[in-house]
Each structure stands twice: as C-alpha cells, then as structure tokens.
C-alpha cells in the first residue's frame, strides 16, 4: 500500500447513478482509489463527513475577454471565480477577447495567456465568422473544443454574424473534421426589425427589449440550423436556449437522428423579466430573460433530461457599460459564473426536488461526454483527474458583492440566499478554493 497525496475521508460521493459514502485517495493529480476506509497514509487528509463531493463542474460557456479586453474580466479573476463556485474546467468563447479566437495566431495568444493565468483547466472555443472558413482546419488542429458562430449580431464589431451560406459551408467543413458547431441561435432578421421598430416608436423599456427578441426568433433560427446540421451531417450544440419551446424543437430533432445537444443557463432557470425590470441592465442578456412559466417549464425539461448541459454564459463588462445607459444600449451579458452551482442547488435541488444526480449530469457528466473529455473529467472515478467540489448542503448564505471574485463585483444574484455552500474546490489534486479547515469545521 503506497502513500497518497491526499485522502478525503467519509464524503458522500455523487455520481449520475447515485450517492455513496466512501474515501477518495488522490495521487499524482489523479483519483487513485475510491473505497471505504482506505488504508494508507497521505500528505494531507480531509474529513468530509456529512459533506457531498461532486465532480468539479465543467462550464462550457464563459467569456473571459482576454487578451485584449482583460479589463472586462480576465483569465485570472475569471478562473478564480469559477473555482469559488466548484468549477474545475471552463471553455472560453472566441469573443469578446480581441483579437477574437478566429485565427491560429489568436488561438496561440489566448492559450499562452490562459496557461499563465488560469488556476483551473480550460479549453478554447474557436470562432467561425464569414472571413475565416479557411482557418477552421488549422484551428481544429490547434485543439479548439469546437466552433462558435452567431446567427444574429454578436454586439461586438470584430465578430460578425454568419449568414446562411457561411453557416452551411462551415458546417460541411466542421463535419469533415469531426468537430462540433455551437450556435447563438436568434434570427438576425427578426431581432433587427423588431429592435428598429421599438426604437422608432419610443418603446425603450425592459419589456420592450424582451419583446424585440421573442422566443419565436430563437425557434426560427434553431429550426434553420437544425436543417443545415441534418444536411451537412454536422454535430451541433445550441447554446443558451431560453425557453421550453426551443428545447422541444431540439428534442424532436434528436428523435429524427440529428446529432444535437442543447444548453441552458442558470439565469433562465432563476430570473424573470420582472427581476430584469427590478435589477436593470445587470440582468440584460440575449436571448432575454423570460417569464416565470418559462422558468418552470425549463426546469421540467431539466428533470426529464431534455436539457443536456447547463453553462453560465458568464459575459461581464465594466459597470459603466451597464449603468447610465438605456436598456437597448447597455452591454448585454450576465455575470454569473461563480453562482452556477448555487443556483442549481437552491432553485433545482431545494425548491424543485431535482436530484443531485441530475444536476451533475448537466453540469459535469454531459459536458465531458459531449466534448470528448470523459476519459479524464466529468465524474469521480479511478484514473480520472482529481477535480472535485466539496459542498455542505446544510449551510446557507446570502451572496454579497464582497464574496464575488470577478474583476467587477456585480451580479444579478447579489442579495439572494442560497442553500448549499462550496467549501473546497480541488483541481488536479490541488486545492484551488477554500481551506482544508473549512471542510473540517463544517463537521462540528
Ligand atoms: Zn455567450
């Protein structure tokens, strides 16, 4: 019996099949043993009696904006905030960094920054824009996790939206490479015309903004991209679906054999247009927040397993991009990456009885499987990376600005009370958030 770097004793280990009490032995960044009463010594022991141990979350959707707009968030503060929320791997979107990750040189630049600054593991999305179809192959060789395209205006000048020919030609290439396309699916035509109409008629409040980006606009774009995915035989991932109608379209497509998955975000599962009216631009996102009935029906689809992945779509900016502007002009993007697990525990596990097994499926297991990381990540099994979140379901807290690790300390979740607290986050066997004593203290 050889020694371990760490032994975590008596934790309740959550897998997609159930919860069981066991010890975890970690050696060389890896889960080396899972057993009752591991015999052996460790440089460090953690007593997790009464605590739940989840696989570290995989956040498939963040915008850390570095290089170029690091002052909006940055890889250091971004990764620290994820670690504080139990996340151990993130996929960074190709925008709103500048240059955007649409060329091999831009990929190298971001990778270099992330290697130096991120405290957890990461992968990079490549961008697909009308100008870079001949760069996709090289980006794929560099190791992008997949490609991201916009079907409507991205809000950032250096990342154009893809019209139909670009989408279809790009998808044919992506299919040949065996990669995957993620799309922001809102109709450019519908959102543009409705936004213009609102502005021309002086309809400039929160509800008007939401009405300018209706569910119908998502449904039209999703239906179109599903047809292209089918024709091109391209793997497809729809990001940030805001409503059950959109998820249902995707469920139907799966039944027809289309290789598609769907993501929703914590804000669509916890915030409504009324919250947006109260909070103002810090709750602005696209697609916009919907009404309570949409929140409830999305949760039902999570319970049914029809939502594959929950990602934060953390998209922060300096506060002056939000404050003092009209709703249509304010930066659209929600700061929420640190709170994903808290939202899922409070709104899902506690309020709606969603089992922990289901929660980790959408936040750990499915992301790893869909993006080919499941040999090393996504569940607590022998041989996988020692990426863990140790949580105390019994502790509750009210989120304060000073708790936030973001560069800009605002979030629509400030002031909310959450049951379930992340005590320790372990990435590749190292503690990246919390202190060992915090886990022990929770016992007494
Ligand atoms: Zn996004």
What key phrases describe this protein's structure?
single chain; 444 residues; alpha/beta; Urease, subunit C, domain 1; TIM Barrel; 2 domains; eight-stranded mixed β-sheet; six-stranded parallel β-sheet; 33% helix; binds zinc ion
In short:
Helices cover 33% and strands 23% of the residues.
What's the CATH first level of the largest domain? Answer: Alpha Beta
Number of helices: 13
Give a quick account of the main beta sheet: strands, pairing sense, barrel closure: 8 strands, mixed
As for the number of domains, it is 2
Backbone CA Rg = 21 Å
Percent helix range: 25-40%
Mean pLDDT: 96
Based on the structure, what is the oligomeric state of the protein chains? Answer: single chain
Q: What is the H/E string?
A: EEEEEEHEHEEHEHEHHHEHEHHEHHEEEH
CATH overall fold name of the largest domain: TIM Barrel
Low-confidence stretches: none
Structure classification: alpha/beta
CATH superfamily membership of the largest domain, which one? Metal-dependent hydrolases
Describe the protein's architecture and organization.
It is built from 13 helices and 17 strands. With 444 residues, the chain is α/β, with parallel strands linked by helices. Strands 1, 2, 3, 4, 5, 15, 16 and 17 form an 8-stranded mixed β-sheet that branches. It has a 6-stranded parallel β-sheet with strand order 9-10-11-12-13-14. A 3-stranded parallel β-sheet has the order 6-7-8. The chain is globular, with a radius of gyration of 21 Å. α4 packs across α7. It has 2 domains: 3-53 and 383-404 and 418-442, Roll (Urease, subunit C, domain 1); 56-370, Metal-dependent hydrolases (TIM Barrel, Alpha-Beta Barrel), CATH 3.20.20.140. It binds zinc ion.
